[in-house]
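Hello,

Our lab assistant flagged a job as stuck in the queue for most of the afternoon. It eventually completed. Since we weren't sure the result was trustworthy after the delay, we are filing this so someone can double-check. Below is the sequence as submitted and the structure that was eventually returned. Let us know if re-running is recommended.
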Amino acid sequence: MEKLRIVFMGTPEFAVGILDTIIKNNYTVVGVITAADKPAGRGQKIKYSAVKEYALEKNIPLLQPTNLKDESFLEELKSLNANLQVVVAFRMLPKVVWEMPKLGTFNLHASLLPNYRGAAPINWAIINGESKTGVTTFFIDDKIDTGAMIMSSELDIEADENAGHLHDRLMHLGSGTVIKTLDLIEKGNITTTIQVESTDIKTAYKLNKENCKIDWTKAALEINNLIRGLSPYPTAWCFFSDKNEEWNVKIYEAKIIPEEHTYNIGTLICTKKEMKIAIKEGFIQILNLQFPGKKKMTTPELLNGIKFSEEAKAY
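-- returned structure --
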């Protein structure tokens, strides 16, 4: 049995949960690789990645390369003398990096591969109305999320669950799956399964302004799934307009009200405490939203300070 010396690569909060579990299970992490610092927010202050914050707190050697093929980085990586690399929510690695350790480099991906390869698997599972998702560990190869699978674990997606809640449950599931994978590798008991390619594999496309915009002409379930699947980040959005004003509005939470009506699609109907938008099969009631320049708030909080006319619409 070979004692593992692990280099961990990751950037967001999701990766921190996995790294923390590896440390707490007494595995030796000889180094952490994370994204370079970058300015963020209105003040453009330098922001550390969640993984960097954790590595600094735990005094783990840290590398932040901008170029993964840079000779000096490769030398530093080699000098850590790792025999295994674990990757969680990082970036595509060049062959010279993933081939380096003797026992290989494995990735934890937040989907049941081969479905939802790509940048946003948690979001797309909800957006597409899946009832199940999970996590998969696999050895990295020269394409994105296509390598030989080691283990997978699945869970049910709850009916009203949003991406933030599912993210936390998958982080917990992923932590356990990574520990089981490490145990198999350490004991030399590893067997892998090659991913089967087919034309109906679903993709976890990168999220952008276009695919996060709500189309109120769509079916009620599709609209609600989009809102759930993008909440709390990056958030579904649309325009509200009333008289001569227009707002770019983020919508965090909503519910479907099936009801026959004669309103035009997109009509905004408000009482003192409720807001709903007319769709084909009834209404989408807005529960949590954010107007530009304001904080996220409940609908009654917003309607306390703004009044809409009968001309108001969402599109």
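-- support follow-up --
The delay was a queue issue, not a problem with the job. The result is valid. The helical segments are 13-24, 50-57, 71-79, 95-98, 121-127, 163-187, 220-229, 299-303. The chain has two domains: 5-187, 220-314.
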